[in-house]
Amino acid sequence: MSAMDKIKKMLKGHEDQTSKGVDKAGDMIDDRTQGKYRGQVDTAQDKLRQQFGTDRDQGTPPPPPGM
Length: 67
Fold this sequence. Notes:
Elements: H1 3-11, H2 15-32, H3 38-52
């Protein structure tokens, strides 16, 4: 069993908390990098949500190009 499988099993049933954690971590990274890597952070957040089964629309539009 891979580490990702273990994490998924542990987080099963806690999708709301997982999604909040992914958002909070992404916001912290954006703050520390002053938004320089916002596009990459958003992509990583989306991929994590897909991996953990919390890939519903968060209602936030993507940042405009060039930001």
